[in-house]
Amino acid sequence: MAAGVSSRMKKSSITKEMTKNQINQSNSRVKGYIQVGEGREPLIFYLIKNSINAGVREFYIIVSNNSKDFQKYLKSLECRLGITVNFAIQDFYGKSKPLGTSDAIFQTMNQHEELIKTRFLVCNCDNLYSAKAIRLLLDESNYNSMIAYSFECLEFSDERLSSFSLLNIENNFLSEIIEKPDLELIRNHHKKKYVSMNIFSFKGSEIYKHLKDCPINIKRGEKEIASALQNMIFENKKSVITFPLCEHVPDMTYKNDLEKINKFLN
Fold first, then answer.
1. pLDDT for 124-160, tens place per residue?
2. Of the four, 19, 22, 186, 259, which is 20 to 30 A from 218 by CA?
3. How far apart (Å, rounded) are the C-alpha atoms in residues 124 and 48?
4. Is 1 inside any structural domain?
């Protein structure tokens, strides 16, 4: 998913370590297209490399309509990396930002109808997931699946956790997903904290109707994956299996994350 408008990145404060080029990119590019690391490749390049190492060769990139340079770069990776890149254009319906992650996947499936009949993985373009995480989802064939990250291993603050989804798990299956929990709920959560970093494997035939019927979150005005998943598990308690994982996931949300990702890559 790479069609967001990166509003939190653009609004965040410039750090003293940032170069002029990084400042310009962080204020104008989608987060996955911002160059990081010694190789000065966009973040999405390293994510695609990890996906290749896990066994993925075909990619569907959800982008916005005004992303010609980004699309040109991604197409150039086909020859460089020996992959296939397909694009889906997310319609913003005349608004200044997309209608959410659930809508992004739904639009992609409508533009590439083969996805309705097959299994596929979904992830953000601004998190650097490991090949191990991707491989765990690739190897599961019986259920829809997701990575449940142990929060203590992610190296984020409670405040940062409030921007993710908190997970309740029973017998390895997702029983509840709480999108963007408030700090009081986080601190009073009596179970081991597992969170979603938006990396999933879906059976197209099972997730499609829940994406289609996904309600708009009143507070945020978006159709979110969490809402579609919650409706899926209401219908079938054993529809989404989770894989707990204890590892850090570099996350690019604010300008000060660039330096952290550079250190991680270098």
1. 999 999 999 999 999 999 999 999 999 889 888 877 7
2. 186
3. 11
4. no
